[in-house]
């Protein structure tokens, strides 16, 4: 027997979606007639005739500002969904779609149709996603606006507690989207807008509703007596109810709510102003939108203009193609954390895109740092993210500061010269004591040769986790077979059993400590012995620089990682300051918060592909290329050297 229940339920759902908006409009209009004496058409016409012509022109200009901001709103949504269509035509299409859908009603359907019709290359699914995203985020932004308006103007009793409650709810929701940036429903994963996108969407929403409210206020009869500060919060709330109702033009909910909230004023004046407002803000835009829907070619070309990234030749390469000839070996952490090699012209960065930021790790892989600041910021903006350099050297930090970026010292890198390293001297007294302990315990440290004993290393890693908990990630490596096989590994043996290992990122001019794992039964000094073995191996291969990686170095650094700093200090390294740089303090703060979240709540370990170094050296002359390889591409003079020294002391 055929089961008709699903088909019946689907049909009923479609009927409800069509009838409920109309029913809400009818119900609100009926309630309005029951609460006030409706003015006649003659009264409304007489009141509207009193509106000065300058007010009509001012309302038209305010309407233009409102729709212009809505076009910008659509632009942010295009970047979030990565449609690749962000540009003048997309903004005009957004304006036309909203002008059509706000009057026709049934916003999700009419808005989707209009965007799909006006933007060639936008699929029906993308159009629906775009419409849903703009609608939901606009309601969220409007809730924030209403909350501020309630607290600031208190248009009715208990408005302030209600506004504070809304603010608290919105704040908690934003915090939740930061901690949990994605939402999984069944097989579908949805990404919340970034804080950068939320800020932009809220700003454009404020411009939109304030301009629209100003247009309404200008079209009120001159003797209405309603102040702008009184009208705006009432309009914001009425607009929210009108959007929720999806009734054509918000008819019914908009009138009922405004008349109710402005009950101390003449209802005829309010309705006359609303009638004029509907002509300017609804009737004229829907007429213009209909013309564009009939002839979409009037919006202009279908291809967005080439932007900065197109002009300089930006491209991505997989993380496993990171070149061996690079100034900082630690940039290979992108092989595991989902990063990639990003090229801006002849300049390459080790870049990681997260829900909130686009972060370049350390110094440029090759090229000139000062040539990457503008394109990196543009690249981040194209995905509604903040831009930053993380753990960059003083030279790159200085270049960033000269480019107007904000710079903050955050860490210190422990640097050793393997070629000149010696265990003698009073500053290495603690190191010698640790090494003697390891030697007496029968510890032997040898470089891993041939195929790594992955099973045994994994067991050591599990033992380490059992003793220390979850490892930090994202900016630091985590144990994974494919990842560690692209590193230099040193094994600590005792009684023919591996009790610890240390792994190092390697490049042509530098090694950098990444993982150091020991079981709870490893004798004192095991870690020191593994580092010493790595220093000796680096010396035998004429590697001029070995990094023990960074430790926190900021105002509160003395409270964290004290044991790690003591461990590295045993080798008496040279401490090189490292910085975070971002275009402004807002980007820098957001970048720090996002990096802290990702370090302490890393994503699941991603299997690393086999490392296949690619020669990405820029096509400069040989002398310039050599300079780039050693300095990260920052040509500097004596004055810059002096300023770098000053930054190190700061």
UniProtKB/TrEMBL annotation:
<keyword id="KW-1133">Transmembrane helix</keyword>
<feature type="transmembrane region" description="Helical">
    <location>
        <begin position="195"/>
        <end position="220"/>
    </location>
</feature>
<feature type="transmembrane region" description="Helical">
    <location>
        <begin position="256"/>
        <end position="284"/>
    </location>
</feature>
<feature type="transmembrane region" description="Helical">
    <location>
        <begin position="159"/>
        <end position="183"/>
    </location>
</feature>
<feature type="domain" description="N-acetyltransferase">
    <location>
        <begin position="443"/>
        <end position="585"/>
    </location>
</feature>
<dbReference type="InterPro" id="IPR016181">
    <property type="entry name" value="Acyl_CoA_acyltransferase"/>
</dbReference>
<feature type="transmembrane region" description="Helical">
    <location>
        <begin position="226"/>
        <end position="244"/>
    </location>
</feature>
<keyword id="KW-0812">Transmembrane</keyword>
<feature type="transmembrane region" description="Helical">
    <location>
        <begin position="130"/>
        <end position="153"/>
    </location>
</feature>
<dbReference type="Pfam" id="PF09924">
    <property type="entry name" value="LPG_synthase_C"/>
</dbReference>
<feature type="transmembrane region" description="Helical">
    <location>
        <begin position="15"/>
        <end position="32"/>
    </location>
</feature>
<dbReference type="GO" id="GO:0055091">
    <property type="term" value="P:phospholipid homeostasis"/>
</dbReference>
<keyword id="KW-1003">Cell membrane</keyword>
<feature type="transmembrane region" description="Helical">
    <location>
        <begin position="53"/>
        <end position="70"/>
    </location>
</feature>
<feature type="transmembrane region" description="Helical">
    <location>
        <begin position="90"/>
        <end position="109"/>
    </location>
</feature>
<dbReference type="InterPro" id="IPR000182">
    <property type="entry name" value="GNAT_dom"/>
</dbReference>
<dbReference type="InterPro" id="IPR051211">
    <property type="entry name" value="PG_lysyltransferase"/>
</dbReference>
<dbReference type="GO" id="GO:0016747">
    <property type="term" value="F:acyltransferase activity, transferring groups other than amino-acyl groups"/>
</dbReference>
<keyword id="KW-0472">Membrane</keyword>
<dbReference type="GO" id="GO:0016755">
    <property type="term" value="F:aminoacyltransferase activity"/>
</dbReference>
<dbReference type="InterPro" id="IPR024320">
    <property type="entry name" value="LPG_synthase_C"/>
</dbReference>
<dbReference type="GO" id="GO:0005886">
    <property type="term" value="C:plasma membrane"/>
</dbReference>
<protein>
    <submittedName>
        <fullName>DUF2156 domain-containing protein</fullName>
    </submittedName>
</protein>
């Amino acid at each position: 027997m055929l089961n008709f229940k699903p088909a019946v339920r689907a049909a009923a759902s479609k009927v409800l979606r069509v009838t409920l908006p109309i029913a809400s409009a009818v119900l609100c209009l009926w309630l309005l007639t029951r609460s006030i004496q409706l003015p006649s058409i003659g009264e409304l016409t007489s009141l509207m005739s009193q509106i000065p012509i300058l007010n009509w022109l001012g309302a038209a200009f305010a309407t233009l500002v409102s729709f212009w901001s809505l076009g910008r709103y659509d632009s942010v949504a295009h970047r979030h969904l990565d449609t690749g269509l962000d540009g003048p035509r997309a903004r005009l299409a957004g304006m036309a779609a909203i002008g059509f859908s706000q009057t026709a009603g049934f916003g999700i359907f009419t808005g989707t149709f209009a965007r799909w019709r006006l933007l060639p290359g936008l699929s029906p699914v993308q159009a629906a996603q775009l419409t849903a995203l703009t609608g939901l985020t606009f309601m969220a932004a409007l809730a924030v606006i209403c909350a501020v308006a309630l607290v600031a103007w208190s248009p009715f009793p208990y408005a302030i507690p209600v506004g504070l409650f809304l603010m608290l709810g919105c704040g908690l929701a934003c915090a939740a989207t930061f901690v949990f940036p994605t939402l999984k429903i069944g097989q579908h994963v949805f990404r919340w807008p970034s804080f950068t996108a939320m800020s932009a969407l809220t700003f454009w929403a404020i411009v939109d509703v304030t301009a629209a409210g100003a247009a309404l206020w200008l079209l009120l009869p001159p003797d209405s007596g309603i102040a702008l500060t009184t009208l705006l919060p009432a309009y914001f709330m009425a607009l929210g109810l009108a959007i929720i109702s999806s009734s054509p033009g918000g008819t019914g909910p908009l009138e009922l709510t405004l008349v109710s909230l402005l009950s101390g004023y003449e209802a005829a004046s309010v309705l006359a102003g609303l009638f004029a407002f509907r002509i300017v803000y609804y009737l004229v835009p829907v007429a213009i939108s209909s013309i564009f829907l009939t002839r979409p070619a009037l919006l202009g070309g279908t291809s967005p203009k080439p932007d900065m990234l197109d002009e300089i030749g930006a491209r991505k390469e997989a993380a496993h193609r990171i070149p061996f000839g690079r100034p900082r070996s630690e940039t290979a952490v992108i092989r595991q954390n989902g990063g990639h090699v990003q090229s801006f012209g002849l300049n390459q960065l080790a870049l990681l895109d997260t829900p909130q930021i686009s972060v370049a790790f350390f110094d440029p892989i090759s090229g000139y740092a000062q040539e990457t600041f503008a394109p990196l910021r543009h690249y981040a903006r194209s995905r509604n993210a903040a831009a930053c350099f993380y753990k960059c050297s003083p030279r790159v930090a200085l270049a960033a500061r000269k480019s107007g970026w904000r710079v903050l010292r955050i860490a210190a890198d422990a640097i050793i010269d393997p070629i000149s390293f010696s265990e003698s001297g009073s500053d290495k007294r603690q190191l010698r004591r640790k090494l003697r302990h390891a030697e007496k315990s029968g510890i032997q440290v040898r470089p891993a040769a041939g195929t790594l004993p992955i099973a045994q290393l994994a067991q050591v890693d599990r033992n380490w986790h059992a003793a220390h908990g979850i490892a930090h990630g994202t900016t630091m490596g985590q144990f994974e077979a494919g990842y560690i096989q692209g590193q230099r590994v040193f094994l600590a043996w005792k009684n023919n059993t591996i009790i610890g290992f240390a792994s190092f990122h390697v490049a042509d001019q530098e090694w950098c400590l990444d993982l150091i794992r020991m079981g709870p039964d490893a004798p004192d000094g095991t870690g020191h012995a593994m580092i010493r073995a790595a220093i000796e191996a680096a010396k035998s291969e004429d590697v001029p620089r070995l990094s023990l990686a960074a430790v926190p170095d900021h105002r509160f650094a003395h409270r964290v990682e004290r044991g790690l700093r003591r461990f590295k200090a045993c080798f008496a390294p040279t401490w090189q300051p490292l910085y975070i740089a971002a275009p402004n303090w807002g980007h820098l703060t957001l970048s720090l918060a996002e990096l802290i979240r990702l370090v302490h709540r890393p994503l699941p370990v991603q299997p690393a592909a086999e490392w296949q170094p690619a020669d990405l050296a820029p096509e400069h002359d040989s002398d310039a290329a050599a300079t780039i390889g050693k300095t990260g591409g920052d040509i500097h003079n004596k004055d810059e050297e002096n300023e770098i020294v000053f930054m190190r002391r700061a």
